[in-house]
Structures
1.
Amino acid sequence: MAISISVLLLLVILAVVFLRSGGLKLSHALVCILLGFFLAGTSMAPSIANGISATAGVVSSLNP
């Protein structure tokens, strides 16, 4: 578990650096994909899924 958290933190830091640099290359996209897979395996996954569902519900209820 400690290794997963360390890798997760490393991937988060790399994703932030890549997004701030302004260019997202193939290697950067692969890091972001790996970040998603590691996040899915953490205890934060249900909270993230609930937050996304709630946000989608709010957006879909807006009338233009």
2.
Amino acid sequence: MENLALIDSFSEFKDDKLIDRVTLMAILEEVFRSTLKRRFGSDDNFDIIINPDKGDLEIWRNRVVVADGEVEDDNEEISLTDARKIEEDFEVGEDVSEEVKLIDLGRRSILALRQNLISKIHEHDNTNIYKQFKELEGDLYTAEVHHIRHRAIILLDDDGNEIILPKDRQIPSDFFRKGENVRGVIESVELKGNKPAIIMSRTSPLFLEKLFESEIPEVFDGLITVKNVVRIPGEKAKVAVDSYDDRIDPVGACVGMKGSRIHGIVRELGNENIDVINYTTNLNLYITRALSPARITSIKIDEENKTAQAVLKPEEVSKAIGRGGHNIRLAGQLTGYEIDVYREGVEEDVELTEFSDEIEAWVIEAFGKIGLDTARSVLEQEVSDLVRRTDLEEETVLDVMRILKEEFEE
């Protein structure tokens, strides 16, 4: 039969797309049957024989011989005269098998058939990619920067699969050049239309957890368990670790001598400050550890309302709160408790919200974001430091200080 361009490309499809022989034959038959159905109204009486390795294809139409003038369906019936043009000894009632040449389908049908075939191959390919990466969700993955866009970086892996690293999944200090390798976790895989959208993340807490598994042998082997991870990407992270073997110091094993083991992880995350703490079911001790590097004098926990009040010496308060309030915020996320800090020896204090009639809500909120939610916690700070940390105007900060001082002078 005519070995048209469509047939010549069978082996090419098989080699390029790595499709197994059985799958390729099934796709080819589906495409040809669809074309025959459009051309003849039905494909039920057609036999399709395909050999994709050699590029051979045969299509046979089976019809019943009827008397001349009695053909009602020319797809399933053939007149005696036409049947005897194929073989002279056919009789009424017999079955006739006649080969259908591709050229007989018409040029337009052949072009549509080829396009349909390419589409089906791509659809099969995309389905396989989707399944492959769906199983990789939450795993570490490395790909190369292919194209840098305003809202995302487009990566390609070794198989040419496209992976998207959105801007909001990048660490603020991330800067990549074309051709550079990027590591992250496969966060999600979705089918958009027929094309898989593979999203990578470097800001997910899971990325940090997987880096621990990758870089620290005891975590990889299961001797140390990462119980919880919380992050402010590029700024600070807290990781709670535990070991069921009393001979292993989980924190020491993760950090290493002089931070040697965790140094590579910190560098990967743009010098993100990582606190590694021992996990414990003792809630008082867990919250105390979560507030490190601050030293807690005492702590009072309300388990019903999931709140904790930590009392510290005045010089420890700023450590507990941390720059920009990061430390206390992450400690709360790590433990699941809302933590308030109080200065030891200071009995009288007033919540900033009590001044809402004199201080605007957005100003109170600005102080709260850096962990200052009481009058004395604000008054103990330097004005210049408050201006820098809150981004408020100096005049606004001075006005707040004046209002707060009047409260205590009364």
